[in-house]
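Journal club side-thread
Mid-discussion, someone asked how the predicted structure for our own chain would compare to the paper's figures. Pasting it here so we can look after the session.
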Amino acid sequence: MGRVADLIKTNPAEAAKVIRAGIGSEELLKGSIREAGTTLFVAVEAEPGDHEVILNSADVSGFKLRKLDNTLYAAIVGFTDGYVIKGDIQVDGKTLRGGIQVELYQPNLYVQTPPGGMKGEIRDMGELKSQIYSGTTRKWF
């Protein structure tokens, strides 16, 4: 999201191309919401012209999305760890997508696959026969 966030600020037209390439038009027409850790990304494809497009929540009342080109609006917003968004996306005061609930948390590094790393797996290694306690076996993984 870092590259898109920079493009939204510095080159909105290029940001619009990148967003459209990564998100299908059907999803953009409904209002796209994606989260990565404590960062929330919202994008909406609207009719041509100027519109007020907002993420409306009890805590984030009327957060405006930025117009990137004639029809695409987007925003990337960082929140504190554990923040919960409950609300809707509105275009000119009308709900486009309602019932949104997103919980934003810092990723747990102990359960995340490191970049370029491999995921572990649990394998059944069979039975281990004890040499100390004769006649006993243990399954090990």
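Post-session note: The radius of gyration is 23 Å.
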